Amino acid sequence: MKDRISGEIADYELKESGILISYSKPIKRTVPLISANVELVKKINGGRPVPLLIYLCDSPVPDKETRKFSIEKLPEIYSAMAVVSKPGLSAFIMKILFKFQKPPIPMKSFTDDQEAEKWLNQFI
Description:
By secondary structure, the chain is α/β, with parallel strands linked by helices.
């Protein structure tokens, strides 16, 4: 595994398997922060979408414009997303993000990171 790469909204590790691990930070997401993060992830993954295993933490709910921008950018950098968090948190986040539309990439919530990684392997 490569060294951890620090970003403003998350830290990342790209595993040898090709799965990107994201350690979310409790900061409010904004369009400029998401935009900078997309560029960071593109540098990490060589500009091609990769499966993401994200460890969610409690953070403020972003505004509507930021949520819309985030959803539009997802397919540019991720091929699938496994969300690992304490029970209820990821379901709540996904409900907010995808209230009116289907996620643009395969997404699934987990409380167990090994199960999440196993699911992501199909997208490598």
